[in-house]
Design a protein that fits this description.
The longest helix has 23 residues. Strands 7-11-12-19-18-17-14-13 form an eight-stranded mixed β-sheet. The chain has a five-stranded mixed barrel with strand order 2-3-4-6-5. A three-stranded antiparallel β-sheet has the order 8-10-9, with no helix packed on it. 26% of the residues lie in helices and 29% in strands. It has two domains: 91 residues, Nucleic acid-binding proteins (OB fold (Dihydrolipoamide Acetyltransferase, E2P)); 276 residues, BirA Bifunctional Protein, domain 2 (2-Layer Sandwich). It has 414 residues and is an alpha+beta fold. Helix 4 crosses helix 6.
Length: 414
């Protein structure tokens, strides 16, 4: 706690504006370097690193303090020749707030590389590594930028239930829960709710966690994930595709202006039909595009769209385009699917027809269907896998690296 009349408390980025002043700083001992009668502490805090210079009796005081211990320093800020920070602190007093164990499950200083799951299972300590911490600072900034962008586009942020009575998209990949003696499910998307809400709100978006009961242990799948979803009245497929492309470019340019090392895509995202992809890769029309096929097709590409998927491969609410195709699209990055969307069915009779065609009972969707008798407008939307987007932005190859506490079929802890 800050004592009365004590020096101003600052963080590492504020050292320069306090040159020549006595300040108080708190943080963790990242490293210790001894050079003759001087001892240099490399100190870390949530915003960066700096060097603290100790001499005299202070050297003996910290000689046995383990790395990662939390301390409070007081001293004068001066210019430094250190490459870590252009300013350092000449320490007058030091208080050890809490000593860390001498043997830790991983080394945040990265002198010893740790396996991914060791890092995940000890995430708070892992985040003392600046490179890992930067991912989650970027994650927070990306969410902020996204909210601001969609709000400026007149989308209204909504919160829909995560415990639901009926599968949003059909299928069996749902976590079933006992809801006071009745069966219920964890939501796999906000799809039905966001469609209903355009009836009166016009444009809506939601950023939330969703759940899929898949046993896919791949580098791009999780059972709990974050999705960015939009839905808009009186927009067609191409309209929401445009919003999605604009959002991606805006995220890149905004993050770059914040100091992140990114190059914004300065090209119009190419558009390929599903049929064109099939012809290019030798896939039979009507078959799904496997990971291997998408990796092969996208290996020399950045962001691009695949449109007009077969109706049989898309959910029941997708607007048909003729007899076999749909008004749908996927946003891809190389071989990775980032988003899926399209125009939705807005007519009651066609929606019932498509439910039956997908072997779903319209009676089970009666609460949803009634809205389509109240003057539902034409509408379109998409869902963007935020965790996958973070993989692309951060350059990481495993989705578990960009999620604080990833949940898959093998891991429930911590």
């Amino acid at each position: 706690m800050k004592k009365e009349n004590s020096p101003r408390r600052v963080q590492s980025p504020e050292l320069g504006e306090n040159e020549g002043k006595t300040v108080e700083l708190h943080g963790w001992v990242h490293d210790v370097r001894v050079l003759g009668k001087l001892t240099f502490l490399i100190m870390g805090d949530p915003y960066g690193y700096y060097q603290a210079v100790l001499k005299g009796e202070l050297v003996e005081k910290v000689s046995n303090v383990p790395r990662q211990s939390y301390v409070v320093l007081r001293g004068k800020v001066v210019k430094s020749r250190s490459k870590i920070n252009p300013y350092e602190v000449q320490v007058d007093s030091l208080e050890v707030v809490n000593e860390a164990d001498k043997v830790l499950p991983l080394d945040p200083a990265s002198k010893v590389e740790s396996e991914l799951m060791t890092r995940v299972n000890n995430r708070p300590l892992d985040l003392r590594n600046a490179e890992e911490r930067k991912i989650f600072l970027m994650r927070a900034d990306t969410l902020k930028v996204t909210r601001e962008f969609l709000s400026q586009k007149k989308f209204i942020e909504v919160d829909t239930p995560k415990i639901i009575a009926t599968a949003s998209e059909g299928g069996a990949e749902l976590f079933k829960v006992d809801y006071f003696g009745r069966p219920a499910y964890l939501a796999q998307s906000p799809q039905l709710y966001k469609e209903e809400l355009v009836l009166a709100l016009g444009r809506v978006f939601e950023i939330a966690h969703y759940f899929r009961a898949e046993k896919s242990n791949t580098v791009k799948h999780l059972n709990e994930f974050t999705s960015i979803d939009i839905e808009s009245a009186m927009m067609l497929k191409q309209d929401v595709m445009g919003i999605l492309e604009e959002l991606i470019k805006h995220i890149y340019s905004s993050l770059k202006s914040m100091g992140y090392q990114l190059e914004a895509p300065n090209y119009s995202f190419p558009v390929y039909t599903y049929e064109e992809v099939c012809k290019s890769t030798g896939v039979k029309f009507g078959e799904d595009l496997t990971t291997d096929v998408l990796n092969e097709f996208g290996k020399d590409k950045g962001f691009y769209f695949i449109i007009e998927w077969p109706l049989s491969l898309k959910p029941f609410y997708t607007m048909p385009k003729g007899d076999k195709l749909s008004e749908s699209f996927d946003l891809m990055y190389k071989g990775l699917e980032l988003a899926s969307g399209g125009q939705r069915i807005h007519r009651y009779d066609l929606l019932v027809e498509r439910l039956k065609a997908n072997n779903l009972d319209p009676e089970s969707f009666s609460e949803h269907l009634k809205v389509y008798r109240w003057g539902m407008p034409i509408h379109s939307g998409w869902g963007l896998g935020f965790d996958r987007l973070m993989m692309v932005l951060s350059g990481r190859s495993n989705i578990r690296e960009v999620v604080l506490y990833p949940r898959d079929s093998r891991h429930l802890a911590p």
